[in-house]
Design goal:
single chain, 248 residues, mainly beta, twelve-stranded antiparallel beta barrel
Length: 248
Amino acid sequence: MIRYASLLLCLPFCVHAAHPLVSDDVGTQGEGGWQFELNGDYARDRDAGTRQRVANATLTHGVVDTVDVYLNATWMRAETADEAGAVLATQGAGDLSLGAKWRFYSADGASLALKPFATMPTGDHSRGLGNGLPYYGVSAIATYEHEAWTLIANAVGAYACGEAAAVLKRQWMLSAGIGHAFSDALQAVGEVVYASGTEPAADQHPALMTLGLIYRVAPTFDLDIGYRYGLNRAEAHHGLGAGLAWRW
């Protein structure tokens, strides 16, 4: 199986985030609203000699003003070099995820939300295209807005059902992010993420930093771009991502 090079992208709880960030925010679509997101990320790990490309397509629907439901599909391509220098590649559909987001508190610029989720092992784990086990978990999300600034914090827990010696059964992620709106159309974002990783025997927890821009082309259409940097050797060195979000 090809080793993942991705910057936390293979973790089961990193789907349907506020791209280009790994962190999610408390925003919902409103009753009857729809959103389609399409994004792609590229990661390279020089030490492991691996590269990975991941594409996510997410459809979200607002059940009521404070509750969304979503479905996420993933496509992956991973490359690594063998001892002879030949490039080995595998690609295909990854795991499917579904979940909901409930914003249960909002006052004086502060908002809180919970996001339960499930990730189904629809990808071929033997080829490195999925987690190999169903995951269930929940995210706790907090934001605070003041004038042009937004602060974001996430605490995520996930549990793998089934038996697999190579997979950590209980996984977690903590993140803190910040956003600054230069105008109604342009926002700069950044975050720091610290996570358990997926390997039980790992001697270091992955950590990364993300910097990005979100540009609102129209009231219902956003474009984003981001750069990710691994903060320790448990993470891939560099990653790039770009995406779009269309609401109706």
